[in-house]
Here is the input.
Amino acid sequence: MKLTALVLVVFMAIAGSAFAADTSVTAAAKGSFPSGTNFNGISISGLQIAAGDLIWGDGSGAEGKLTIALIGTTPLGLQQTINLNADVTGAQRTSANVVVISGTGTLDMGDGTAAVTVPVIATITTDSNNLGTVGLTIGATTLPASTIGDGSMAIDDLTP
Amino acid sequence: MGHQTHVRWAVWGVTVVLAFAMVTPAAYASDKPRVEAAGWYFGTSIMTNNQEIKIGVTGKCDRGGTFCSGGHDLGRFEYFNTVTGLRVHGKINTIQFHPQSCPNVPLDSTFPAVTVNGSCDDGSCSFAADLVDGGNRKNQMGDWVCNVNVAGQNKSHALVPAENEDAQRLQKGEIKIRDYQP
Here is the structure.
Protein backbone atom coordinates (compact mmCIF):
# COMPACT_ATOMS: atom_id res chain seq x y z
CA MET A 1 0.00 0.00 0.00
CA LYS A 2 2.86 2.37 0.85
CA LEU A 3 4.49 1.59 -2.48
CA THR A 4 1.24 2.31 -4.29
CA ALA A 5 0.86 5.63 -2.52
CA LEU A 6 4.46 6.56 -3.31
CA VAL A 7 3.98 5.75 -6.99
CA LEU A 8 0.86 7.90 -7.06
CA VAL A 9 2.60 10.85 -5.43
CA VAL A 10 5.49 10.70 -7.88
CA PHE A 11 3.14 10.47 -10.85
CA MET A 12 1.02 13.33 -9.58
CA ALA A 13 4.12 15.51 -9.21
CA ILE A 14 5.35 14.72 -12.70
CA ALA A 15 1.89 15.08 -14.19
CA GLY A 16 1.45 18.38 -12.42
CA SER A 17 4.53 19.78 -14.05
CA ALA A 18 3.50 18.37 -17.42
CA PHE A 19 0.14 20.12 -17.24
CA ALA A 20 1.50 23.51 -16.13
CA ALA A 21 0.35 26.35 -18.34
CA ASP A 22 2.54 27.88 -20.99
CA THR A 23 3.82 31.35 -20.12
CA SER A 24 3.70 34.43 -22.32
CA VAL A 25 6.26 37.18 -21.83
CA THR A 26 5.53 40.42 -23.66
CA ALA A 27 6.97 43.89 -23.41
CA ALA A 28 6.80 47.23 -25.22
CA ALA A 29 8.38 49.73 -22.87
CA LYS A 30 11.14 52.13 -22.03
CA GLY A 31 13.10 52.73 -18.87
CA SER A 32 16.15 54.25 -17.31
CA PHE A 33 19.42 53.08 -15.79
CA PRO A 34 21.02 54.36 -12.60
CA SER A 35 23.51 57.14 -13.21
CA GLY A 36 27.01 55.87 -13.76
CA THR A 37 25.91 52.90 -15.83
CA ASN A 38 28.39 52.06 -18.56
CA PHE A 39 28.55 49.52 -21.34
CA ASN A 40 31.67 49.05 -23.46
CA GLY A 41 32.83 52.55 -22.56
CA ILE A 42 29.53 54.24 -23.32
CA SER A 43 27.57 55.96 -20.58
CA ILE A 44 24.08 54.43 -20.67
CA SER A 45 20.99 56.24 -19.46
CA GLY A 46 18.00 54.72 -21.22
CA LEU A 47 16.57 51.34 -22.12
CA GLN A 48 14.03 50.45 -24.77
CA ILE A 49 12.61 46.95 -24.87
CA ALA A 50 10.21 44.87 -26.92
CA ALA A 51 9.62 41.20 -26.21
CA GLY A 52 7.41 38.40 -27.42
CA ASP A 53 8.34 35.07 -25.88
CA LEU A 54 6.66 31.77 -25.10
CA ILE A 55 7.80 29.46 -22.32
CA TRP A 56 6.43 25.95 -22.70
CA GLY A 57 4.61 24.65 -19.66
CA ASP A 58 5.94 21.14 -20.11
CA GLY A 59 9.45 22.37 -19.43
CA SER A 60 10.67 21.68 -22.95
CA GLY A 61 12.03 25.18 -23.44
CA ALA A 62 11.19 28.60 -24.74
CA GLU A 63 11.27 30.59 -27.95
CA GLY A 64 10.73 34.12 -29.06
CA LYS A 65 12.29 37.49 -29.72
CA LEU A 66 13.87 40.14 -27.57
CA THR A 67 14.76 43.58 -28.93
CA ILE A 68 16.78 46.00 -26.84
CA ALA A 69 18.14 49.49 -27.40
CA LEU A 70 20.55 51.09 -24.94
CA ILE A 71 20.53 54.87 -25.17
CA GLY A 72 23.89 56.29 -24.28
CA THR A 73 26.40 59.06 -24.65
CA THR A 74 29.93 58.80 -25.92
CA PRO A 75 32.87 60.30 -23.98
CA LEU A 76 32.68 63.17 -26.51
CA GLY A 77 29.07 63.86 -25.56
CA LEU A 78 27.45 62.43 -28.67
CA GLN A 79 24.34 60.29 -28.41
CA GLN A 80 24.89 56.65 -29.27
CA THR A 81 22.25 53.94 -29.53
CA ILE A 82 23.34 50.35 -29.00
CA ASN A 83 21.00 47.80 -30.53
CA LEU A 84 20.58 44.20 -29.53
CA ASN A 85 18.31 41.78 -31.40
CA ALA A 86 18.10 38.38 -29.73
CA ASP A 87 16.57 34.98 -30.37
CA VAL A 88 15.27 33.54 -27.14
CA THR A 89 16.07 29.87 -26.66
CA GLY A 90 15.62 29.33 -22.95
CA ALA A 91 13.67 30.73 -20.04
CA GLN A 92 12.71 30.11 -16.47
CA ARG A 93 9.76 31.55 -14.63
CA THR A 94 11.18 31.88 -11.17
CA SER A 95 8.00 33.35 -9.66
CA ALA A 96 4.65 34.68 -10.82
CA ASN A 97 6.13 38.03 -11.84
CA VAL A 98 9.72 37.14 -12.68
CA VAL A 99 11.17 35.42 -15.73
CA VAL A 100 14.77 34.91 -16.73
CA ILE A 101 15.09 34.54 -20.47
CA SER A 102 18.23 33.68 -22.35
CA GLY A 103 19.37 33.49 -25.91
CA THR A 104 21.81 34.72 -28.46
CA GLY A 105 21.76 38.18 -29.91
CA THR A 106 23.32 40.42 -32.49
CA LEU A 107 24.93 43.39 -30.81
CA ASP A 108 25.40 46.55 -32.85
CA MET A 109 27.30 49.17 -30.92
CA GLY A 110 26.05 51.88 -33.26
CA ASP A 111 29.51 53.30 -33.82
CA GLY A 112 30.21 51.82 -37.20
CA THR A 113 31.98 48.73 -35.92
CA ALA A 114 30.79 45.35 -37.12
CA ALA A 115 27.95 43.72 -35.19
CA VAL A 116 28.92 40.75 -33.06
CA THR A 117 27.06 37.74 -31.71
CA VAL A 118 26.72 37.62 -27.93
CA PRO A 119 24.90 35.57 -25.30
CA VAL A 120 22.08 37.48 -23.62
CA ILE A 121 20.26 37.00 -20.34
CA ALA A 122 17.33 39.22 -19.39
CA THR A 123 15.56 39.16 -16.05
CA ILE A 124 12.13 40.72 -16.38
CA THR A 125 10.26 41.60 -13.21
CA THR A 126 6.78 43.06 -13.48
CA ASP A 127 4.77 45.01 -10.93
CA SER A 128 1.06 45.66 -10.47
CA ASN A 129 1.17 48.54 -12.98
CA ASN A 130 2.66 46.35 -15.71
CA LEU A 131 5.93 48.19 -15.30
CA GLY A 132 8.86 46.85 -13.26
CA THR A 133 12.54 46.28 -13.94
CA VAL A 134 14.75 44.68 -16.56
CA GLY A 135 18.14 43.23 -15.71
CA LEU A 136 20.51 42.50 -18.56
CA THR A 137 23.67 40.50 -18.99
CA ILE A 138 25.15 41.07 -22.43
CA GLY A 139 28.16 38.94 -23.13
CA ALA A 140 30.32 39.21 -20.02
CA THR A 141 28.80 42.50 -18.84
CA THR A 142 26.01 42.64 -16.30
CA LEU A 143 24.18 45.95 -16.22
CA PRO A 144 22.33 47.27 -13.19
CA ALA A 145 18.58 46.79 -13.39
CA SER A 146 16.73 49.31 -15.51
CA THR A 147 13.54 50.76 -14.05
CA ILE A 148 10.70 50.74 -16.55
CA GLY A 149 8.89 54.07 -16.59
CA ASP A 150 6.36 53.81 -19.41
CA GLY A 151 4.87 51.29 -21.77
CA SER A 152 4.06 47.89 -20.35
CA MET A 153 5.40 44.43 -19.65
CA ALA A 154 3.46 41.29 -18.80
CA ILE A 155 4.08 37.74 -17.65
CA ASP A 156 0.97 35.63 -18.02
CA ASP A 157 -0.23 32.05 -17.90
CA LEU A 158 -1.79 30.94 -21.15
CA THR A 159 -4.55 28.74 -19.79
CA PRO A 160 -7.31 27.27 -21.97
CA MET B 1 -12.13 -8.12 -1.90
CA GLY B 2 -11.16 -5.88 1.00
CA HIS B 3 -11.32 -2.09 1.25
CA GLN B 4 -7.54 -1.83 1.01
CA THR B 5 -7.54 -3.74 -2.27
CA HIS B 6 -10.17 -1.43 -3.69
CA VAL B 7 -8.08 1.58 -2.80
CA ARG B 8 -4.99 -0.02 -4.30
CA TRP B 9 -6.82 -0.68 -7.58
CA ALA B 10 -8.19 2.85 -7.63
CA VAL B 11 -4.76 4.38 -7.10
CA TRP B 12 -3.20 2.30 -9.84
CA GLY B 13 -6.09 3.18 -12.12
CA VAL B 14 -5.49 6.90 -11.60
CA THR B 15 -1.78 6.37 -12.20
CA VAL B 16 -2.39 4.59 -15.50
CA VAL B 17 -4.76 7.33 -16.65
CA LEU B 18 -2.21 10.01 -15.80
CA ALA B 19 0.50 8.09 -17.61
CA PHE B 20 -1.60 7.98 -20.78
CA ALA B 21 -2.45 11.65 -20.46
CA MET B 22 1.17 12.63 -20.06
CA VAL B 23 2.25 10.94 -23.28
CA THR B 24 -0.59 12.46 -25.29
CA PRO B 25 1.02 15.37 -27.21
CA ALA B 26 -2.00 17.62 -27.20
CA ALA B 27 -1.69 20.20 -24.46
CA TYR B 28 1.60 21.91 -25.14
CA ALA B 29 2.74 20.63 -28.47
CA SER B 30 4.93 23.28 -30.02
CA ASP B 31 4.32 22.16 -33.59
CA LYS B 32 1.15 24.22 -34.07
CA PRO B 33 1.00 27.64 -35.76
CA ARG B 34 2.32 30.40 -33.53
CA VAL B 35 3.85 33.84 -33.67
CA GLU B 36 6.28 35.85 -31.60
CA ALA B 37 6.88 39.50 -32.38
CA ALA B 38 9.09 42.10 -30.71
CA GLY B 39 10.23 45.37 -32.17
CA TRP B 40 9.31 48.87 -33.20
CA TYR B 41 8.39 50.93 -36.22
CA PHE B 42 7.75 54.55 -37.08
CA GLY B 43 4.16 55.51 -37.77
CA THR B 44 3.14 57.44 -40.86
CA SER B 45 -0.59 57.84 -40.41
CA ILE B 46 -2.12 61.20 -39.55
CA MET B 47 -2.28 60.19 -35.91
CA THR B 48 1.17 58.63 -35.64
CA ASN B 49 3.36 60.53 -38.08
CA ASN B 50 7.02 59.74 -37.35
CA GLN B 51 6.19 58.44 -33.89
CA GLU B 52 8.04 55.41 -32.60
CA ILE B 53 5.73 52.55 -31.75
CA LYS B 54 6.80 49.43 -29.92
CA ILE B 55 5.01 46.10 -30.02
CA GLY B 56 5.36 42.79 -28.25
CA VAL B 57 3.07 39.91 -29.22
CA THR B 58 2.75 36.21 -28.55
CA GLY B 59 0.10 34.11 -30.25
CA LYS B 60 -0.58 30.44 -30.78
CA CYS B 61 -3.32 28.24 -32.14
CA ASP B 62 -3.03 24.86 -30.42
CA ARG B 63 -6.49 23.56 -31.22
CA GLY B 64 -5.86 22.57 -34.80
CA GLY B 65 -6.24 24.53 -37.98
CA THR B 66 -5.19 28.11 -38.56
CA PHE B 67 -7.95 29.95 -36.68
CA CYS B 68 -8.52 30.04 -32.95
CA SER B 69 -10.79 32.14 -30.77
CA GLY B 70 -11.80 32.47 -27.14
CA GLY B 71 -10.03 31.34 -24.01
CA HIS B 72 -6.95 32.78 -22.41
CA ASP B 73 -4.43 30.54 -24.10
CA LEU B 74 -4.03 32.32 -27.44
CA GLY B 75 -1.44 34.88 -26.44
CA ARG B 76 -0.84 38.43 -25.27
CA PHE B 77 -0.07 41.79 -26.79
CA GLU B 78 1.66 45.04 -25.82
CA TYR B 79 1.52 48.26 -27.86
CA PHE B 80 3.25 51.47 -26.84
CA ASN B 81 3.45 54.76 -28.70
CA THR B 82 6.46 56.48 -27.15
CA VAL B 83 5.19 59.93 -28.19
CA THR B 84 1.45 59.92 -27.49
CA GLY B 85 1.84 57.57 -24.54
CA LEU B 86 -0.91 55.25 -25.77
CA ARG B 87 -0.16 51.90 -24.21
CA VAL B 88 -2.43 48.90 -24.39
CA HIS B 89 -1.86 45.38 -23.23
CA GLY B 90 -4.12 42.39 -22.91
CA LYS B 91 -5.08 39.03 -24.27
CA ILE B 92 -5.49 37.81 -27.82
CA ASN B 93 -9.12 36.94 -28.53
CA THR B 94 -8.82 35.67 -32.09
CA ILE B 95 -5.88 34.60 -34.17
CA GLN B 96 -5.91 33.71 -37.87
CA PHE B 97 -2.84 32.54 -39.78
CA HIS B 98 -3.04 33.21 -43.51
CA PRO B 99 -0.98 34.07 -46.59
CA GLN B 100 0.31 37.64 -46.67
CA SER B 101 -2.41 39.82 -48.18
CA CYS B 102 -1.71 43.40 -47.10
CA PRO B 103 -1.78 45.49 -50.28
CA ASN B 104 0.95 47.90 -49.21
CA VAL B 105 3.38 45.31 -47.98
CA PRO B 106 5.93 44.43 -50.68
CA LEU B 107 5.80 40.70 -49.99
CA ASP B 108 3.77 38.19 -51.97
CA SER B 109 1.31 35.61 -50.71
CA THR B 110 3.98 32.97 -50.23
CA PHE B 111 4.98 34.78 -47.03
CA PRO B 112 3.15 33.87 -43.82
CA ALA B 113 1.03 36.39 -41.93
CA VAL B 114 -1.27 36.37 -38.96
CA THR B 115 -4.18 38.55 -37.93
CA VAL B 116 -4.55 39.05 -34.20
CA ASN B 117 -7.37 40.75 -32.34
CA GLY B 118 -7.24 41.43 -28.65
CA SER B 119 -8.61 43.42 -25.77
CA CYS B 120 -7.53 44.53 -22.34
CA ASP B 121 -8.51 42.22 -19.55
CA ASP B 122 -10.79 44.96 -18.21
CA GLY B 123 -12.19 45.76 -21.64
CA SER B 124 -10.72 49.25 -21.71
CA CYS B 125 -8.71 48.82 -24.90
CA SER B 126 -8.66 47.06 -28.22
CA PHE B 127 -5.86 45.92 -30.47
CA ALA B 128 -5.87 44.52 -34.00
CA ALA B 129 -3.00 43.98 -36.38
CA ASP B 130 -1.64 41.86 -39.17
CA LEU B 131 1.90 40.65 -38.56
CA VAL B 132 3.90 39.58 -41.60
CA ASP B 133 7.02 37.44 -41.37
CA GLY B 134 9.35 38.46 -44.17
CA GLY B 135 11.83 35.75 -43.31
CA ASN B 136 15.46 36.10 -42.47
CA ARG B 137 16.46 39.73 -42.09
CA LYS B 138 19.45 39.06 -44.31
CA ASN B 139 17.17 38.94 -47.33
CA GLN B 140 16.44 42.65 -46.78
CA MET B 141 12.69 42.14 -47.07
CA GLY B 142 12.07 42.74 -43.41
CA ASP B 143 9.03 42.05 -41.27
CA TRP B 144 5.90 44.17 -41.46
CA VAL B 145 2.81 45.22 -39.56
CA CYS B 146 -0.35 46.34 -41.32
CA ASN B 147 -4.01 47.02 -40.65
CA VAL B 148 -3.08 48.18 -37.15
CA ASN B 149 -5.97 49.58 -35.11
CA VAL B 150 -5.48 50.42 -31.46
CA ALA B 151 -7.63 52.22 -28.91
CA GLY B 152 -6.99 52.73 -25.24
CA GLN B 153 -5.35 54.84 -22.57
CA ASN B 154 -2.00 56.21 -21.50
CA LYS B 155 -0.12 55.43 -18.30
CA SER B 156 -2.34 57.80 -16.32
CA HIS B 157 -5.44 55.99 -17.57
CA ALA B 158 -6.47 58.99 -19.65
CA LEU B 159 -8.05 58.25 -23.01
CA VAL B 160 -5.75 58.82 -25.97
CA PRO B 161 -7.03 59.16 -29.55
CA ALA B 162 -7.18 55.83 -31.35
CA GLU B 163 -4.29 55.04 -33.67
CA ASN B 164 -4.05 53.09 -36.89
CA GLU B 165 -1.42 52.18 -39.41
CA ASP B 166 -1.74 50.95 -42.95
CA ALA B 167 1.58 49.16 -43.36
CA GLN B 168 4.99 49.64 -41.81
CA ARG B 169 8.22 47.73 -41.80
CA LEU B 170 9.77 47.00 -38.42
CA GLN B 171 12.83 49.18 -37.99
CA LYS B 172 14.12 47.07 -35.12
CA GLY B 173 13.18 43.60 -33.99
CA GLU B 174 11.54 40.70 -35.69
CA ILE B 175 8.28 38.88 -36.34
CA LYS B 176 8.56 35.10 -36.36
CA ILE B 177 5.73 32.84 -37.52
CA ARG B 178 6.39 29.18 -36.87
CA ASP B 179 4.83 26.00 -38.16
CA TYR B 180 2.64 27.77 -40.68
CA GLN B 181 3.56 28.21 -44.32
CA PRO B 182 1.06 29.24 -47.02
Q: What stands out?
A: Chain B has one helix and ten strands. Chain B touches chain A through 50 residues (CB under 8 Å). The mean pLDDT of chain B is 87. The beta strands of chain B are 34-42, 52-60, 67-69, 75-81, 87-99, 112-119, 126-132, 144-153, 159-169, 172-178.
